[in-house]
Amino acid sequence: MARHSKAHTAGYKPSVNLAVKHRVGTGPDVLWREPERKSAASIELKTDKKAGSMYTKKEDIGQYQDHAKYVSDTYPDDKIFHRIIGPHLPVSPECHPPDDLRIMQVDPFHSLMPRLTTL
């Protein structure tokens, strides 16, 4: 709870989007919004991907695109940064990933945590 409060105090509105996901069947794993600035970060967590695997059409890229559309439709006036957090792996050849797809590794977030707790 303290991390949520500190992030909230810093101007961010973090929410784990599980309630929305269960109600309507879609939505990112994590959605951070800053309504006053009309910006948001939509995050898909793929941290369980194994070395030697790849991002697949249905389970990874298709889900990413579905959730990106959901967030864009829900907050049409927001500038939204869509990201996958997971290992750098190839994308399956049958996929057609969007041009704005960005995959961020988990390690930078580990170093970010101590800084967030000092807010």
Number of H- or I-type helical stretches: 4
Number of domains: 1
How many beta strands in the DSSP annotation?
Answer: 5
C-alpha geometry: flat
Radius of gyration: 15 Å
Mean residue pLDDT: 78
Low-confidence stretches: 1-12, 15-23
N-to-C CA distance: 13 Å
Hey, roughly how much beta strand do the residues contain? 15-25%
Which sequence of strands runs across the widest sheet? Answer: 1-2-3-4-5
Report on the structure:
The protein starts with a helix and ends with a helix. It has helices spanning 2-9, 18-24, 57-74, 107-117; strands spanning 13-16, 30-34, 39-45, 79-85, 103-104. The protein has one domain. A 5-stranded mixed sheet has the order 1-2-3-4-5. Strand 3 (39-45), helix 3 and strand 4 (79-85) form a beta-alpha-beta unit. The chain contains 4 helices and 5 strands. Residues 1-12 and 15-23 have low confidence and may be disordered. The protein is an alpha/beta fold and 119 residues long.
